[in-house]
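Figure 3 (text version): structure tokens given as input.
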């Protein structure tokens, strides 16, 4: 498989960076990485009669690497390889998105019975001057609150796909 070339941006920036940028693609990628690694670690642990390591990317990765020879000899090895490759591509798209992927994705609002869409691009509130994210129906959250809402988004996503 040929490596994917990365674009190099040679922009010089002076001053400080704003710390209130929220990139949902990064959060999604992190969630997907943990879910896939945890799922395969549980499979290996169940079949080998061992404990699953603590839920962390380094711990799960080390566990899977330690049992990679065994896993590669199992019938679902091709599925494992496909899922890991899909994660690799997702990570590459996250750290080096194409110009068409630079638009912040919208999400369904997490407020019950709200049909609005959350725009994750931070905006300055007219009255407060604080940066926040908001849904098209008017619900708003400060940037630091979005992390606490993440489980609600996941729960809603699972309910829709069920």
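Below: residues designed for each position.
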């Amino acid at each position: 498989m040929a490596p994917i070339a990365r674009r190099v941006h040679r922009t010089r920036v002076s001053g400080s960076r704003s710390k209130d940028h929220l990139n949902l693609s990064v959060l999604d990628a992190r969630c997907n990485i943990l879910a896939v690694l945890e799922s395969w670690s549980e499979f290996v642990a169940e079949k080998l009669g061992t404990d699953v390591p603590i839920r962390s990317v380094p711990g799960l990765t080390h566990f899977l690497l330690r049992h990679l020879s065994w896993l590669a000899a199992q019938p679902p090895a091709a599925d494992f390889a496909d899922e890991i490759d899909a994660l690799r591509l997702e990570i590459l798209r996250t750290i080096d998105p194409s110009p068409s992927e630079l638009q912040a994705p919208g999400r369904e609002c997490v407020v019950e019975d709200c049909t609005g869409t959350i725009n994750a691009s931070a905006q300055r509130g007219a009255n407060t001057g604080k940066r926040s994210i908001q849904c098209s129906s008017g619900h708003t959250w400060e940037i630091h609150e979005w992390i606490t809402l993440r489980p609600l988004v996941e729960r809603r996503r699972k309910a829709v796909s069920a």
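The mean pLDDT is 77.
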